[in-house]
Structure formats: structure tokens, C-alpha cells
Amino acid sequence: MFGNLGEMAKMMSKVKDIQSGIKKLKSELGTLEFSATSAGGLVKATVSGDFTVKSIEIASAAMTSDCNVAAAVTEAVNSAVAAAKMTIQTKMAEISGGIDLPGLF
Fold first, then answer.
1. In terms of CB atoms within 10 Å, which end of the chain has fewer, N or C?
2. Residues near 7 by beta carbon (within 8 Å), at least 6 away in sequence
3. In the CATH hierarchy, which top-level class contains the domain 2-96?
4. pLDDT, tens digit, for every residue of 25-81?
């Protein structure tokens, strides 16, 4: 009987560690930045870890080339968001010890 209580105490400690790690990660998300380019580097998008678009840079050459600027911006933003998601998933796996916690991010 007491063995089960010891395991329960370990589990509760792990849950508290996970909660603390998630709280810390959420507070850091706004400071993390992810950038991606498209159209051969003519378009660059930067997003934060909380998926806020921080900047979009379009080189003047993009306007004079055959570049579909709207598509290039979309591609760069989507790539930056994908990089942010991948990093967050990796950090969440580290925090949770590999336990899948869907719906947090």
C-alpha cells in the first residue's frame, strides 16, 4: 500500500515540475524569434514564439522580378511559424519527459 503512495508522490512531484516548466516556457514565448525566407531570400518573415508576426521584409528586387510577392510572404510566414511550432514541441517534450500534452500550444 505504501509503495503506491510513494509512486503517487513521485508522480505529483513530476506534475508540478511539468507545470512549472510550462509556465516558464509560456512566459518566454514572446521573446523567442523565428525567421524564414522565401523567393530566394527576397522575402523574410520573423515571428515570435507566441506566433505574433514581428516583421516582414521585402527586398525591392522582389517588386521588379517575376516574384509573386503575396505567395512569397505567405510562404515565409508559414515557414517561420512552422519553425516556432517545431521548437515549442521540442521544448515541451523536454519539459514533459516525452509525455504528449495536446492542446497546450
1. N
2. none
3. alpha beta
4. 888 888 999 999 999 999 999 999 999 999 999 999 998 878 899 999 999 999 999
Distance CA 47, CA 52 (A): 5
> Where do the domains of the chain lie?
2-96
Contact 65, 42 (CB under 8 A): yes
Secondary structure of the chain as H, E, C letters: CHHHHHHHHHHHHHHHHHHHHHHHHHHHHHHCEEEEEEHHHCEEEEEECCCCEEEEEECHHHHHCCCCHHHHHHHHHHHHHHHHHHHHHHHHHHHHCCCCCCCCC
**Helix/strand/coil (H/E/C) assignment for every residue in 69-91:** HHHHHHHHHHHHHHHHHHHHHHH
CA distance 40 to 56: 15
